[in-house]
Amino acid sequence: MIEVKDAPVPPPRPAGGGRRPVSGSSQLSVRARRSSCVDMTVTIRRVLCVLPLLLVAVVAVRQREVLAEGLGLVTTARWPWLLAAAGLTCLTWPAAACTRQGAVLERLPGRRLVAAQFAAGAANHLLPTGLGASAVNLRFMTVCGLSTARSSAALALYLLAESVGRVGLLAALLVAFPDALPFGSLLPGGAPVGALLVAGAVLVLAVGGLAAVRRVRTVVAGFLRTALGEARSVHARPARALALWGGALVFPALQAGVLVLVARSFGLAVPSAHLAVAYLAATVAVALVPTPGGIGSVEAALVVALQLAKTNMTNFMRPQQQLTILVQVGVSYDSDLEHVERVTKEVVAEVMTEITGAVPEHEPAVRFHTFGDSRIGFTVILGVAEFSDQYRIKHEFIKRLHRRYREEGIRIPSPARTVALQQGTVLIPSQRDGAAAVDDMTTGRPV
Questions:
Q1: 345 in Cβ contact with 367 (< 8 Å)
Q2: b/e per residue, 414-438, with b = 16+ CB within 10 A?
Q3: What is the rounded end-to-end Cα distance, in angstroms, of the chain?
Q4: What are phi and psi of 18, to 5 degrees?
Q5: For residues 445 and 368, what is the distance between their CA atoms, to the nearest angstrom?
Q6: How far apart, in whole angstroms, are the C-alpha atoms of residue 319 and residue 306?
Q7: Which end of the chain has the least Cβ crowding within 10 Å, N or C?
Q8: Which carries the bigger pLDDT value, residue 72 or residue 445?
């Protein structure tokens, strides 16, 4: 006889999709882990925010002499021009924000967008050109709710519009001022054409190799479809298209204007159009070189502009050679020029050896050059080690030279002005030298 046993009945499944209820202690543990992760993320973000400031502080301490020289130069600038340059600098952030808004359909928060452009400009000085601003704006758009694909497409559209606007503005200025940038004088005689061709061939092969990978082709094709879709949607709305392309033109124009105003504040005798063309050309070129944004382009523009002005190509912010400064002096016609030259050279030698920033080995030089109305003019050549030292050295030289001339009886005449009066008429005053006045007195003519 076979005995049949009932199969064991499985325990009833708990409610909630078969998951066992979690005890209170487990829930507290999960919450604690999540809270610790959030705290860690916040801490990391704070450290990353403070890290650039620490790096800037370290650089400032190590380059404190350069900063001191820079502040000394700023004190010699004309403040109205500097204030105007600061105003244009502030306008670049709304211009960039306008261009960013034009690249997306959704309305972005205005104040936060302008603040993001300020942060993007600061990040551009720490990372290679364009990467800092791109990273900040990509993060900003994703936080505002745009997907990563759409944020990347909007970023690509912005970069395209900004590049087209910059190159277009440069082309327009070159057409208006064709002599502003002589490319032939800037290129070396034996340009490495072979090396450039090899680099171009390597680049083409690299792009072809990446295109042969199916996964890469799929990703690139998807990105292009998204980018083209965003571009069509943006240009279907005139307000967005105007913001995009208008901001792309205004932004580089404001940057060039800042450089022009700064040059005016320091009295650089360079045409404004030449400075603007040099800056735009430098920023276009520096976009291809992984250098910190805003540094290499500005310095390159200054050097190019100085070369265009036919001046000495010296980077005054980081001089690598000794400089000379000229001081114009004049003495009376009854002076012994040999004595004047000897005394002046002695004062120059004294200043060169005793004043900080001078060049002790500089050979004193005096060059007479002009018979003026009331004086014989000459130039004194002084040597300085740094550009910012010239003001202190010139200041001390003039004081010592004036005191020594008084001790030696050498007279620095002031312009003589005589007034000729006749009965019933008053003649127009004219500037006369001492010899002419003496001649009038000896001949009996009215003086």
A1: no
A2: eeeeeeeeeeeeeeeeeebbbeeee
A3: 161
A4: 85, 0
A5: 33
A6: 14
A7: N
A8: 72
Residue 157 C-alpha from the chain's centroid:
25
pLDDT digits (tens, 9 = 90+) for 290-349: 444 445 555 655 565 555 544 444 444 444 456 788 899 999 999 999 999 999 999 999
Residue type at position 49: C
How far apart, in whole angstroms, are the C-alpha atoms of residue 57 and residue 63?
A: 10
- Comparing CA positions, the residue from 427, 330, 340 lying closest to residue 379 is 330
Helix (H) or strand (E) holding 172: helix 148-176
SS3 292: strand
- Longest Cα–Cα distance of the chain, Å, equals 169
Q: What is this structure's pTM? A: 0.55
91-107 burial: b if 16+ Cβ within 10 Å, else e: ebbbbbbbbbbbbbeee
The closest alpha carbon to 251, from 96, 86, 98, 90, belongs to 96
Long-range (24+ apart) CB contacts under 8 A made by 416-422 are 416/373, 416/374, 418/447, 420/446, 420/447, 421/446, 422/446
Count of residues in the chain: 447
Q: Which of 74-88, 106-120, 136-150, 408-422 has the lowest mean pLDDT?
A: 408-422
